UniProtKB/TrEMBL annotation:
Keyword Lyase carried by entry: no
Residue ranges the record marks as coiled coil: 44-75
Record's protein name: RidA family protein
GO molecular function: deaminase activity
Source species of the chain: Aureibaculum algae
Top-level lineage group: Bacteria
One Gene Ontology term, aspect cellular component: cytosol
SUPFAM superfamilies hit by this protein: YjgF-like
Family per similarity comment: Belongs to the RutC family.
Keywords assigned by UniProt, alphabetized: Coiled coil
The UniProt record lists the keyword Coiled coil: yes
Length: 126
């Protein structure tokens, strides 16, 4: 049985999907972009601010499922420009302990929703 996870502390979906689905102790998040849930505005001043907002959105979704970044086992990072990798990695890395960090892939893509620069999704385990 699956449980839909929804929180007002992360952006509402902009299509036919949910923020996350919990099934058999595994949480699958949808990709998050840098929408500020309080204002509905995109945070695009710089790649660091954008990445921080993405991670805060994911943090809120995890918290709604009573999980933390320590529960994350896999992440997928999609970026518009691989030249931003180091800056994204610096912000992303601050949310994890190096010894227990999840597996991940980082992929440069041609275009992301709303023309953002980074989107991240996660899989976590209770």
């Amino acid at each position: 049985m699956k449980t839909i996870i929804t929180t007002s502390k992360a952006p509402a979906p902009i299509g036919p999907y949910n923020q996350a689905v919990l099934v058999n102790g595994m949480l699958f998040t949808s990709g998050q972009i840098a929408f500020d849930p309080a204002t509905g505005e995109l945070i695009l001043e710089d790649i660091q601010s954008e990445t921080k907002q993405v991670m805060e959105n994911l943090k809120a979704v995890l918290a709604e499922a009573e999980l933390t970044f320590e529960n994350v086992v896999k992440t997928s990072i999609f970026i518009a420009d691989m030249n931003d990798f180091a800056k994204i990695n610096e912000i992303y890395g601050a949310y994890f302990n190096d010894e227990t960090a999840p597996a991940r892939e980082t992929v440069q893509v041609a275009c992301l929703p709303k023309n953002v620069n980074v989107e991240i999704s996660m899989i976590a385990v209770k």
